[in-house]
Design goal:
Blueprint (H helix, E strand, L loop, with lengths): L1 E6 L3 H16 L3 E2 L8 E6 L4 H17 L4 E6 H6 L5 H4 L5 E3 L7 H11 L3 E3 L23 E8 L10 H5 L3 E2 L2 H13 L4 E6 L13 H9 L6 E4 L9 H8 L7 E3 L7 H6 L6 H14 L4 E8 L6 H14 L3 E6 L17 H25 L4 E9 L4 E5 L5 E5 L13 E9 L4 E5 L3
Parallel strand pairs: 1-2, 1-3, 3-4, 4-5, 5-6, 7-9, 9-10, 11-12, 12-13, 16-18
Antiparallel strand pairs: 7-8, 14-15, 14-17, 15-16, 17-18
Helix pairs in contact: 7-8, 9-11, 12-13
Length: about 450
Amino acid sequence: MKIFIVTFGCKVNQYESQAIWEKFAQIGLTKAASTTDSDVVVVNSCTVTEESDKKVKKALHKIRKENANVIIVLIGCLPQAFAANPDFIENVKDADIVLGNECKYEILAHVLDFLKTKNKIFKVKAFDARNPKFESAIITDFSERTRAFLKIEDGCDNFCSYCIIPYARGRVRSKPIDEILAEVQNLAQNGYKEVVLVGINLSSYGKDIGLTLCDAVETVCCVGRIERVRLGSLEPEQMDEDVILRLSAQKKLCPQFHLSLQSGCNETLKRMNRTYSPEDYYSSVKRLRENFENAAITTDVMVGFAGETDEEFEKSISFVKKVGFAKVHVFTYSKRAGTRAAEFENQVDPLVKKNRSKSMIKVTDSARREFLDSQIEKIEPVLYEMRDSKGFWHGYTRNYTPVVIEANRAVPDLDLHSKIVLTKLIKAEDDYCVGSLVED
């Protein structure tokens, strides 16, 4: 039986798809080259926005059109969040098997049942809020990548007014520390030099088991062959002085921090049900920069949230200028069915949102260029990932600055894949730095 997995969404989904594939491989199933070449296609869905839902449904239809006999399995956040919606089953009619997040590792058993009966299977279990448990999975590889994602946390307790994810992922659950250690040791033995810790609300790691994110970071950093540890998206209110000081003692921890902002206006943040102020956020940024040399701070910024006035937007854009981010993902608010914000009054006109997005992107693009310019003349260890068709090697510094170098003409077959090499950054382009290898 040949399997193909299509993954939408975040790093957690990417990790879970890898875990699912390894379970298949252990029993001798093979990886198909494409959806048209497979017996079973697993679609691991994302539902963070309505646009995400549309992409998943479009993919289901395309797979069915191209391969009428394939068994399509839809799993993940989309069915978990919207299984109770009367229109849901009709909207995913191309899927033969639909499983929620609590059932996604049961795929093979349901495929075998479907082969026997040919009856569609729909199984979405509610999360047990009284006894939440981390559904453990262990990976040993990460699909030919040079860095491995390691999921250590699931769920979110925040319930931001615009966000559907707590309903798709449940409450906070944390991976036991001994399982984290065993998994990192496996990855190190398989040649991975960098591990990225990820979670739905990564900063909340350990709150359910009496630990903290610092405990997880220290555990991973103690594994000898791992040279770099990187963190996924973080919530700023949980990055207090004690946490930052403790993290800064870990020299393997990369100085790149994605602190989710959403808005630089306090009034907007309150309507979003975010639990920090711009002043709190800026304090965390300053502490990170004081304790980590050449730190890069990246973020997400939402424009056009329900009720956002011109004055509030100006406050947000001024704050973004003040921080000086290394990179910003700017996105426009859209109503999400099932969230409180979808029912808020004073929704912003689409044209206004579009113009605000353009204004914010202009500011953040300028900040990106300033950050890249600040890296020039620095000599940094770069983890090289791939060589493109034109002969250029691509990699990342510790603070996640993209670096491109031309292959050495004197040694054209020089293989830098998965190697960390000292590189001097000599020029900044629009979204990367040009580098030159430093002779040893």
